Q: What sequence folds into this?
């Protein structure tokens, strides 16, 4: 599933090809994605200039003067830059055609993605409830401690809650907790400010490295695939069950928290 770094990599990959261009056509081949594609999407976009492409959590925002198109890649979707002559694939559900015939094509095999419209994106129901961006100044150890309060839920569940902070998916949560030296099952309300400061710093570090890695392995978004490079660097704990911890040599352990696989070192993460 595309996570924050992969979506950010997609944003950076497509932006140079489409920002500043005028929409000429909108072709919706499959209106039934996770939510219905607006019937009037073509009327909203045709003739509009694309001012910018931004990201909020896992959503891409294609911003025009009259509002924004919200794109979500779902479980397995991707975007690519192409042209009208390229053959349509089975799962190519949406084409955004620009005046110079550049095409931004959404491919979504499982149809869990979305293409929605918002006149004021920050007030859209899907975005208004999101927590701060983890790489922003609003996200800090102090903020995490305040949101944790005296709650007893595992710290891994807290940081994976998009109402608390966006974009900390399963892999990144496990890696961040290892870097911060925190056990994933530790109750959120029992962690002190120093621990939360370590954790906030770890989250920023892990995500930034993942984004940089996506940038260095960025596939050509004008090719037939258009998928970003995923987190390729050596993972410290995730999916390394029974392998030696890179810091202490103890075997990495595995458990499930909230039905998600969690990996940790029993020595390094007390």
A:
């Amino acid at each position: 599933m595309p996570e924050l770094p992969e979506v950010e990599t997609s944003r950076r990959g497509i932006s140079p090809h489409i920002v500043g261009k005028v929409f000429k056509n909108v072709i919706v081949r499959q209106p039934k994605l996770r939510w219905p594609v607006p019937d009037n999407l073509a009327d909203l976009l045709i003739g509009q200039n694309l001012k910018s492409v931004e990201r909020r959590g896992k959503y891409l925002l294609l911003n025009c003067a009259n509002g924004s198109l919200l794109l979500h890649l779902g479980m397995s979707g991707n975007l690519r830059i192409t042209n009208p002559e390229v053959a349509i694939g089975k799962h190519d559900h949406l084409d955004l055609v620009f005046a110079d015939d550049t095409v931004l094509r959404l491919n979504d095999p499982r149809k869990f993605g979305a293409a929605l419209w918002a006149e004021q994106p920050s007030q859209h129901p899907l975005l208004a409830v999101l927590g701060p961006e983890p790489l922003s100044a609003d996200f800090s150890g102090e903020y995490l401690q305040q949101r944790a309060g005296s709650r007893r839920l595992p710290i891994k569940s807290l940081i994976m809650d998009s109402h608390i902070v966006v974009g900390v998916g399963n892999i990144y949560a496990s890696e961040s907790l290892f870097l911060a030296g925190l056990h994933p099952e530790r109750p959120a309300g029992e962690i002190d400010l120093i621990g939360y400061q370590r954790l906030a710093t770890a989250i920023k570090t892990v995500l930034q490295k993942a984004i940089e890695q996506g940038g260095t392995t960025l596939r050509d978004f004008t090719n037939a695939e258009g998928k970003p490079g995923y987190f390729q660097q050596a993972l410290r704990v995730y999916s390394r069950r029974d392998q030696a911890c890179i810091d202490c040599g103890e075997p990495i352990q595995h458990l499930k928290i909230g039905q998600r696989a969690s990996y940790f070192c029993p020595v390094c993460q007390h």
